[in-house]
Design a protein that fits this description.
Largest sheet: 3 strands, antiparallel
Strand content: 25-35%
Number of strands: 3
Shape: flat
Order of helices and strands: HEEE
Radius of gyration: 21 Å
Helix content: 25-40%
Distance between the termini: 63 Å
Number of helices: 1
Length: about 70
């Protein structure tokens, strides 16, 4: 019975980790060969350097700025 209880606890901890998971950031990658830039989450290969980032979406756009003006 102790083994089953341990398995339940381990499964619960693993599911808790999934609840905190976030999407991977996006980056601009520049080719070392011809300077072409692409937007991707992971490196396209050894011939690429990370150029800028991180961004939230696949268009590699900066987050929009939201200004909150208090009402008096």
């Amino acid at each position: 019975m102790k083994l089953a209880a341990r398995l339940v606890v381990i499964c619960a901890l693993l599911l808790a980790q999934l609840a905190w998971a976030a999407p991977a950031p996006w980056y601009w990658w520049r080719s070392k060969v011809d300077g072409v830039r692409i937007c991707a989450q992971i490196s396209p290969g050894p011939g690429w350097d990370r150029d800028s980032g991180p961004y939230q979406g696949p268009q590699c756009q900066p987050k929009p700025r939201v200004f909150v003006i208090p009402i008096r």
